[in-house]
Every structure is written in C-alpha cells, then in structure tokens.
Write a structure and sequence with these properties.
- The protein has helices at 8-19, 85-99, 120-129, 141-148, 180-193, 207-222, 241-248, 250-264, 287-299, 333-336, 339-351, 361-377, and strands at 73-78, 110-114, 132-136, 157-159, 173-175, 198-204, 226-233, 280-282, 307-308, 328-331, 388-390, 395-398, 404-407, 409-414, 417-421.
- With 422 residues, it is of the alpha/beta class.
- The chain has 2 domains: 4-178 and 339-407, Rossmann fold (3-Layer(aba) Sandwich), CATH 3.40.50.2300; 180-331 and 409-421, Rossmann fold (3-Layer(aba) Sandwich), CATH 3.40.50.2300.
- The strands form 4 sheets. The chain has a 5-stranded parallel sheet with strand order 2-1-3-4-5, sandwiched between helices.
Length: 422
C-alpha cells in the first residue's frame, strides 16, 4: 500500500479537494447562507485544514512568490458543466492537486469560473474584478480564440489551448496546449538526429492529419530531411493497403512484373518489392489506426523500416500494443514515468484506492498548468523565457512568443510495452 504519511499535506488536501470538494463556480450562482463565497477554496465541513508542510517530492519547480497580496490570486476558467464537463473536471482535479502541494502560507487565493455558464468575456471581466493576478484557461479552442481577442483590461493569461499564429492577441498571453503539431516537430528533429534523411508519411485524412503533416514537413525540411511521398488513409477503415502500396510503390513493382511476363510470354515466380530509398516512415494517428497500420506495413515488407508516430499512437495497455512492436514515439512523463510521476501517483492511489485519474493526460495537464501559473506569478516583469518547469506533461519552457513548449520523453514499443529511449 502506498505510504501516504510521506505526503501528509498533499494526501489530506487531495482527499478534501477531490473526493469531497464543496466548491461553487464563479458563475451566476447564489450562495446558501452556510456556504463560503462562490469560488473560494476551503476544506469541506467536518474536515481539518491540511497541515502547512509541503511534501519534498512535490515542491514547486520554481520558488513561489513571497506572501500573496491583493490582486495576486489565481483564476481558473474551465467548462465544469455541459458537454465538456468531463475534460474540464479532469483538468481541475489535476490543478487542485498541484495547488494543494504548496504550503498553506504560500497558496494564493484561487477562484474557479465555469465557462459553460459564463461567456469568456464575462469570465475574464469577473476574474479581473475579483483580483486575479493571473488567469488560467479557458480550455476549448473556440474559447481560447475569444480570450486571445479580448480587448478589455486583464492580468496575464495562461490559456489551456492554442490559437493559430494569425489570430489577434493582446496583453501578456501564454498558450499551453497538448499540441500534436509540436509533437510532430519533435518527431521530425528526432528522425534526422537518428540519421534518417529521406522517408515517407502515412497520415489519416482530414484536418487533424493535415495539420500534423504540415508541422512535420516544415520541421523536417528545416532539419535537412525530405519526404519522398505522402499518402492518406481513412482512419475509419480497416484496410490501409492502397495508401501503403502507393507510398511504398508496391503497385509499380507489380506493374513491372506484369510487363516482364508479357514480354517473355511466360508466368514468372514473383514477390513484390517496396521502394529501396525509404529510410523512415512517419505515421501519426490514433492508437486504433496504428494497431492496424503497423502489421500491414510488415506485410508489405516495411516492418524493418524505422517508424515514428505521435503520442496519440500509444495507450498504456500491453495486451493492445503487441502489434505496435518497433514503433517509436514521444510522450509525456505521465505515461512513461518519472520521479515526480511516482510521487503524484502514490498520493492518488492513496486517495482513490479503487481507481482515479491515474492515466488521464488531462489530469496531468491541469497539474502542470498550476505549476506554470505559480512560475509565471513569480516572474519579475515579463521575462517569461526564463521559466522552466519539470512537469507531468514534459519539461516545460516558454518561447519568446508566449507558447509553452513541451520537451517530451522518447519510447519504443517492445513486446507490447514502452521502453524509454535516451
């Protein structure tokens, strides 16, 4: 059984905040006479306040700013009701876990606003009036676009999604997202670093595949590599033979065989051959598609070609990943392991003996958002590029344009299990 005594502060706070949280959003909700004001975090009735000690293994990545003063609180904007409630709740639970890992004397005032009940503009206005020193959220791409375009006064904003580069932005805006495009860029750099300079891409048709392919192609060219061919497939299908055959030029091999038989007037023993200039295969996609694609690549004589994917390809299920053997991909420490992950999981296992958000990447996303907010609050001026946070979703830094960059871990599937690479 996990030894929760090693993390008494976070353990009690996690129980209080996540198992019995009695928290109203800062939407238009009337408080009952015996309730705390909406959005104020307090231990539920009958539960003691958590002790002030911060567990050593979960200390913030950067020093917390000195005692919090008025106007230095944190506002968290999430959809906690409606069709995005599950995602918003997972992010909130992760955020609260990191929030309570700080000592009570260091924790700023935290108010949570339900963006399913308030418009983005109303939530930003209310959070600003309530004294937020930094606003975290909103979550959906549409809400983030609205927040980025918000022209009113507000404190620094750490969004939980990203908007296109061409979108208008105002003020101190930091964009933190679980971006498959950024993963694709990291794959491109890894491919070249591994010594592969020419290859093919097999991507799912549609907008997601188009965005990921564009990011990969641009970064690959910048690193000195090239794509020889690109083929798309319908991720809803189970037969990817046409796309594979096109990219590997299997049909050309078959056509040459037929021409030779026609010239000789005789039937010839024949085994199709793939093109010989393919040094790598880039195959981003969801786990279901990858589990179908990998065996078909082997069938078409490409099982020995180094194949790279994005994090979406992997699900932590050894029984489901046997067919992915050999696949190389980047992923978050939350899925692959780290000392920080071990400490957080130990606490969660104690708080949820029968289950809990042990694998949900959105929980990890919320946890890291809280740590980023802490780091950004502690900044002197606007020098955000000095921020560096080792989190559950990767090693996080802030680029000059305000985008949060995630440096991921690397793994390869072997016998159905991920093995971390150097």
């Amino acid at each position: 059984m996990p030894d929760s005594r090693r993390f008494p502060h976070l353990f009690l706070a996690t129980l209080a905040a996540l198992l019995s949280l009695d928290l109203a959003s800062c939407a238009e909700v009337e408080s009952e006479p015996d309730q705390s004001p909406p959005g104020i975090l307090v231990p539920p009735p009958g539960r003691p306040a958590p002790p002030p000690a911060t567990p050593a293994r979960l200390t913030p990545a950067v020093p917390v700013a000195a005692p919090v003063t008025a106007g230095a609180g944190i506002a968290l904007l999430l959809p906690l009701t409606g069709r995005q409630a599950a995602a918003g709740t997972a992010v909130r639970d992760g955020f609260l876990t990191a929030y309570y890992s700080q000592g009570a004397q260091d924790r700023p005032d935290l108010r949570i606003y339900d963006t399913a009940e308030l418009t983005v503009a109303a939530a930003l206005n209310q959070a600003t009036q309530d004294g937020a020193g930094i606003i975290v959220g909103p979550l959906t791409r549409e809400d983030v676009a609205a927040a980025a375009a918000f022209a009113g006064p507000r404190p620094p904003l750490l969004t939980l999604n990203a908007v296109p580069a061409a979108a208008p932005t105002a003020g101190r805006l930091y964009q933190y997202a679980l971006s498959p495009e950024e993963e694709a860029r990291q794959v491109a750099r890894r491919v070249v670093a591994d010594g592969h300079h020419a290859g093919i891409a097999l991507v799912p048709s549609g907008e997601w595949g188009h965005r990921v392919l564009a990011a990969f192609t641009q970064e690959l060219a910048a690193a000195g590599g090239q794509l020889l061919d690109v083929a798309t497939y319908d991720a809803g299908s189970t037969d990817y033979a046409p796309a594979i055959s096109q990219a590997l030029r299997i049909s050309e091999s078959e056509a040459r065989h037929k021409r030779l038989e026609s010239v000789l007037g005789a039937r010839l023993a024949f085994q199709p051959r793939r093109r010989g200039d393919v040094g790598f295969i880039f195959s981003p996609g969801q786990s279901r598609a990858e589990r179908l694609l990998r065996p078909q690549l082997k069938f078409y004589f490409a099982g020995d070609v180094p194949t790279y994917a994005t994090a979406d390809a992997f699900e932590p299920d050894a029984n489901a990943n046997q067919d992915l053997d050999g696949l190389i991909f980047p992923d978050a420490p939350w899925l692959l392991g780290s000392p920080l992950v071990d400490g957080v999981r130990e606490t969660l296992n104690a708080a949820w003996p029968a289950g809990g958000p042990r694998r949900n990447i959105l929980f990890a996303f919320g946890f890291d958002a809280a740590r980023l907010a802490t780091a950004l609050r502690a900044l002197p001026g606007a020098n955000a590029t000095s921020v560096a946070v080792d989190g559950l979703t990767g090693h996080l830094t802030v680029a000059a344009d305000g985008h949060v960059l995630r440096d991921l871990m690397w793994a390869q599937i072997r016998n159905g299990e991920p093995r971390v690479l150097n």
